[in-house]
Amino acid sequence: MKTISIMTNAAEVSGRRADGGSKRGARRSIFEFRHKIGTGGRLSLGIAAWLVFLGVWQAVSDLGLADPTLFPSPANVFDAWVTLFAEKDFAADVIQSLRRIFTSFALAVVIALPIGILMGAFTPVEGFFNALVSPFRYLPAPSFVPLLLMWLGTGDSQKIALLVIGVVFFLITLFMDNTKSVPLELVECSRTLGAGKMSVLRKVLLPAAMPLYVDTARQLLAVSWTYLVIAEIVAATDGIGATMMRAKRFLEVDSIMAGILTIGILGLLSDLLIRLIHRKAFPYLHE
Q1: Which region among 19-28, 94-103, 220-229 has the lowest average model confidence (pLDDT)?
Q2: Rounded distance, CA 212 to CA 133, Å?
Q3: pTM for the model
């Protein structure tokens, strides 16, 4: 009986320790690696982050820690943003910028995708093009502005060309890596079953790597947005960048910040659009 009693007490103590450990684990589980918090949790944390950011910004303005002319409050920036749309035809500038971004990015993808696929599929093609593509990835796109102005003038062609140069070489390299990530066993199996090279490209490599291509395009579209202002500040009469440069002449910092805010919002919306396309096109990856 004594032995049974001792064992029972030990089991109770062990159970209490396990319960305590599980409770402590539950309290810490939100900070576990790759812990899933759900859409609602992510949305709440995102809103909280923005509230903190705007609160600190407003506090800096209210406490007079910065010159209000050079560092306007969030409320003043929002007022300037409304004024741009209501009184200065800012919507037309936004449409122009959107047209330049999506036209240039579509051209970059059309150029980069076939080259990237062939480089990822065939080593000789990679050896030939990589010698050209790799060095160009390290050249800053703005350094091409003087040449583009001389070659293409000050019109839209120069701005679109600059936006293409800003992302096309990165797209080629990443599309190549996406193609290489397809398991070689799929290719070998297809070849064993009698599929030709073009058939393997169209029916094996392209479908297998397509989700990666779309995700790569989403990431590089963000880079394209970062070059927009550079493309539109040189001899431009319209677009978000041109509006920001006009505001600079009159020291309208609130309008400049409103332009930055607009680019951020448009970039976020374009990112969400491609995420939605990815989810609809490849639902099996989001189950």
Answers
A1: 19-28
A2: 20
A3: 0.83
